[in-house]
Amino acid sequence: MPNIVLLGGSSHQDRSQRVAGRLGLELGKVVTEKFSNRETSVEIGESSGCGEVNDNLLELLIMNNACKVASPSRVTAVILCFPYARQDKKDKSRAPISAKLAANMLSVAGADHIITVDLHTSHIQGFSDIPVDNLYAEPVVLQWIRENTAEWDHCIIVSPDAGGAKGVTSIQVSQSTDYFN
């Protein structure tokens, strides 16, 4: 089960460990803390599976360049998990905008066009001097849920962070609209 990440909260850590052991998995990294007002904060220390970002990016840059020197009419980079997409703005003085650097490096390495899926924020498309198409996985994911989940209309979809809450809300609204139509 290489594509499964098992997470456990703080209430039943022993059970989480037993389930992980039974499945032959390691528990994923989760940090839970309490704010001063006693609200709970949860941080998931696991990636969505993009692998080694730096290695993958360098390999993609080299492949783009190898293609470009072979004189094709066009090179399109298809990137499921855009590198450094979460570093899309300056959060402090002298901080780099690494998503912009990644987009520029792809262009310099020879890409004429970038196709990616579910960018962290849509303004990343404007970082590049070449066309960037951001495809949305939501319709395909919703179709898969409908076809593979019993009682899918009673599912609860959650967001890993505040930024994703907007997308989850739009799913809920579109599903309730579909339900009444």
Automatic annotation (TrEMBL):
The organism's superkingdom is given as Eukaryota
Q: Which Gene3D superfamilies match?
A: 3.40.50.2020
Name the EC number(s): 2.7.6.1
Please name the InterPro entries in this protein's record: Pribosyltran_N, PRTase-like, Rib-P_diPkinase
Q: Where is the Ribose-phosphate pyrophosphokinase N-terminal domain?
A: 4-110
Q: What class of enzyme is it?
A: transferase
Q: What pathway does the annotation place this protein in?
A: Metabolic intermediate biosynthesis; 5-phospho-alpha-D-ribose 1-diphosphate biosynthesis; 5-phospho-alpha-D-ribose 1-diphosphate from D-ribose 5-phosphate (route I): step 1/1
SMART domains registered for this protein in UniProt: Pribosyltran_N
| Keywords from the named record | ATP-binding, Kinase, Nucleotide biosynthesis, Nucleotide-binding, Transferase
Q: Which family does it belong to?
A: Belongs to the ribose-phosphate pyrophosphokinase family.
Q: What is this protein called?
A: ribose-phosphate diphosphokinase
Annotated source species: Felis catus
Gene name of the encoded protein: VAMP3
